[in-house]
Write a structure and sequence with these properties.
The chain has 7 helices and 19 strands. The protein is of the alpha+beta class and 306 residues long.
């Protein structure tokens, strides 16, 4: 990958932007684990056209990664080469399209989407209340909870490809499976259209409250964590496999397997990303030994080790 130092930016190596472009930007404050290195470049575009023009003119060899709320992410301690794209306030919008659908910016949170759906009398999107992420992440990862997934509600997504081309991808185009889509590498979801069904705001709120209470009771929400660590293998619950392998409360460095919910890893305060990832790998090893089942990471791990 070509070297892109801050000084070379002024020589025109990186395309001009209308949004914010910062070199050597710390990512730890932007992710839930509060650990990890810096982005070589952090780009917060002003709008989809700003993002499109930047990617079109950016050297094709430079990697690009989208960052949402950073809830499902381990940023390795050596940082992330290339450009990290973070969709800020211009993309944190939700608008009602018709009686049962919403157009949601890629940076909109699950809470904002579900609350807007409630106010619009649109049911079926309540589960988004419980996913600590943004629309872009939901679309990419087929985010889901409490028996529902993004593929159940998505009509289409507006995407800026790594080439800078803006395209519309249908639900079918995204090849959804469990916590996975075929969204191309380097592509950024700038908006998505979700469809629910007519409902009464009071009933929708009651369902959101039920989901929030269940999540509060079972998950370590007030900790530095990354959400669900491993995918549920077919016919199994990841947390149960982890528990049966004797990993509840297991620690490496400053990282710990949550005692409240064993599919969550915690930063107890001074964990490095290397601690967190090593703990996850040790859990996978122990589960493999006790059950013969290979746990797959659900949390995304990006960047380079130190």
């Amino acid at each position: 990958m070509p070297s892109l130092s801050p000084s070379r930016k002024r020589e025109g190596d990186l395309p001009a932007v209308r949004g914010s472009l910062k070199a050597d930007a710390p990512l730890a404050p932007l992710v839930w684990f509060k650990a990890g290195g810096a982005a070589q470049w952090l780009f917060e575009p002003k709008d989809a056209d700003d993002l499109s023009a930047f990617l079109r003119d950016l050297d094709p060899s430079v990697p690009v990664m989208a960052l949402g709320l950073g809830s499902n992410l381990i940023v390795r301690d050596g940082g992330v080469p290339g450009v990290v794209v973070r969709l800020g306030k211009p993309f944190a919008t939700v608008e009602q399209q018709d009686a049962t659908s919403l157009v949601c910016g890629g940076g909109a949170s699950g809470i904002l989407v579900s609350s807007t759906a409630r106010d619009s009398g649109i049911a079926g999107l309540e589960f988004l209340r419980s996913i600590p992420g943004t629309v872009g992440g939901f679309v990419r990862m087929n985010g889901g909870a409490y028996g529902r997934e993004t593929c159940d509600i998505l009509i289409e997504a507006q995407v800026v490809l790594r080439s800078g081309e803006q395209v519309t991808l249908s639900n079918a185009d995204l090849g959804y499976t469990y916590r996975h889509s075929t969204l191309p590498e380097g592509a950024v979801v700038v908006s998505a259209t979700f469809r629910g069904h007519p409902g009464e705001p009071a009933g929708i709120q009651a369902e959101m409250d039920r989901i929030a209470a269940a999540r509060e009771e079972s998950q370590p929400l007030r900790s530095k964590t990354g959400g669900s660590t491993f995918k549920n293998p077919a016919g199994h619950k990841a947390w149960q496999l982890v528990d049966e392998a004797g990993c509840r409360g297991l620690t490496i460095g400053g990282a710990q397997v949550s005692e409240k919910h064993t599919n969550f890893l915690l930063n107890l305060g001074n964990a490095t990303s290397a601690d967190i990832e090593a703990l996850g790998e040790e859990v996978r090893r122990r589960v493999r030994e006790t059950s013969g089942i290979e746990l797959e990471w659900e949390i995304q791990r990006v960047g380079v080790s130190q």
